[in-house]
Amino acid sequence: MDLSPPLAAVAGTAPAGYRPNVWATKDAWDGHRALISHLYADRSLPEVMCIMEAKHGFKATKKMYKSRFKQWGLDIKNNKEPEMRVGVCKVLQRSSQGKLSQLCIRGKCVRWEDVLHYWERKGMSIGDVSAQGTSAATHEAVQCLTPILSPVATPEILATTEQIFSTIHDYCRGSFEAGTWVRTDPKFDCDTTKGLEDGLFQLNTFYELFVTAYQLFALDSCEEAGKTLIAATATAGIKMILSSEHPYILKTLLDLVLCSDRHGRREVAVIVLKQFSALGELVLGESHPLRRICGWLAATDPSQILEVVFRSLRTLETRLGNILGPMHRSTLRLHCDYIRFGGYADDIDHEWVELNDLLSKCISAFGPCDGRTLRVYLELAIYFCVKSKYIEAERAAQTIMKLAASAQPVSSSTHFWVEGLYQLAVSQHGLRDETAAEAKLRLAIDLSISQFGGQDARARNWLVELERWLRVRGQLLAANEVQARREGMIQPADLI
Q1: pTM of the predicted model, to two decimals?
Q2: In whole angstroms, what is the distance from residue 351 CA to residue 362 CA?
Q3: Known PANTHER family for this protein (predicted)?
């Protein structure tokens, strides 16, 4: 099977808006200034060039980009290391005195998260930088000003935003150094040495219950949706998750905020963050970084929380990538989340380009049947469905099912085959092949329950989706039967 280029058998055509490469004109630079500036804030120059050329047909050399960046004042990534070091020390010193800071280097304002990313690329934490001290010769180029406070945001909220990213760095490093998290073979998820053997399953179930609840709200089954949310946020269940200290707890909570916002239920995620913070104090201790991060996120200004969550996800991915390697399964999971939610957060449709690039790397490094490669194929199928590109989604799902038969590790085989089957059902439903879609969704539900049992929250979520399909088509008797089957399964409260 020819998988090079990887999307040749999946996407078929370039995304909408693609045009042949031409050398960038002055008007093109002006027209793309906001987009390029946004991309360059979180990416390297080669990455920006790749996205702009592949997605927008915008062709320019590195020299052209650097010249334009100089005109625009985007020279933050060229800051000299001594100046960045002084900036860190000044901000931390003022923070210890309870003062807020706006860092300026050579007259230009610098975001704290950009400082964190600068040192992260050098493999150093903020604590390491501070411990090494600074040279007095560079102090004049660096200023820390007191920011003008918004009448809406409180000083506490402004102070904690920059602390979140730094604490995520320390949380990851400290968890591995303390032996709470353990490095695994790159084919497998990193794991915890504490808590339950099925900690990841419990965490996934927790997340799926929210998805189920949001599906039930869409069905106007508000009472059942409410009960599902109550079960998902039960004290015993959250304590169990916190006790496991699984590396994916923070990732799951960040995903939950973004998922809840998509369903118009952002306030639910904030309540959950507050619960994790309060119970984290009992289970993990007041000073535990996870408890503090949850509390800070819950207190973030509602107008800023999506941006903060999105950058927290990127920070978590970067830190794990430095510790485990960029192609470790855990790092790739986070990178896929960043790509998926990134296009949603900044409203720039570049997921196609980034997923294509990531898929190429996985196929080259691991081959098409590796679980990490299949994870990216699955993200492609989801992406195509979200964008209503159902023909491409169908091809991607069929590719997943074909490759899953030989998946490595073997434990990935059934999982990805069932996930591929579900995405195939969704894509065929989008193509109005409703009979085929229903049959495949029913099969996916049966296989998922046979694999994980009657407590499988994912299968219950799929039953809600199947019920919705049937009610929309007016097949009320069949829909009632599906509802009865769902209600006959083990209820969420029984999982706690």
Answers
A1: 0.69
A2: 16
A3: CLR5 DOMAIN-CONTAINING PROTEIN
